[in-house]
Each structure stands twice: as C-alpha cells, then as structure tokens.
Design brief:
The structure is a single chain. The protein is of the alpha+beta class. The chain is 52% helix and 14% strand. It has 3 helices and 3 strands. β1 and β2 form a beta hairpin. The two termini are 32 Å apart.
Length: 110
Amino acid sequence: TTEQVRDAAQAAQREVELAAAWRESLSSPPLPRIVESINAFRRDLPELLKSHRGLWVAYSGNERIGFGRSRRRLCQECFRRGLSRHDFVAVIMEPGALDPDEEIEATCDV
C-alpha cells in the first residue's frame, strides 16, 4: 500500500541520517567528559582487575557510576541518572582495555 511504501521510505531516510551522524561522530575528537572518563578508567584499571575482572564498569568523568554484568544495564543506569551518551563510558574490565592506541567506540546506543 501507499502507506507502507511511505513508512519504508521514512525508515530508510532515518537510517541514512543515523549513519551520517555516526560517521561524523567518529571523525570528531572525543568530548572532554569522555576523555576524563577514559582517563579515570585507565587510572583505576589495575586495581579493578583484581576484584572485578570481566565485569563492566561505567564512568562519568572521575565518578565511577557502577559495575555490572551487562553494558546495556549500566548504560540504562547512566541514562536513568540523567546522563547523555556523551557524558560517560561503559567498558569491560580486561587487561589492555582502552589502551591509548585502541580506537574508542561510542558509549551506548540503547
């Protein structure tokens, strides 16, 4: 039907817009809050590996938001606290996580 074709075209346009925004975000330098969060994670990682290896951790700046078995749940907790996806990182605790040479992924898209 005409309505289904229109809905499909609108969905395709949204996908194109999301892909363009994603490409733009990858070419932009990390936001200061994200850099601060990554630095806090890197600083704490050796100690975290002793007691929380294999779990996820979320940081917003120097604040450790919490631990979890699921990235999705941690992201939801950050959103519940009013943080945007540009205000925090959620990272699995494993040796070498977020090495300086590693490409940094977007935080959460849940």
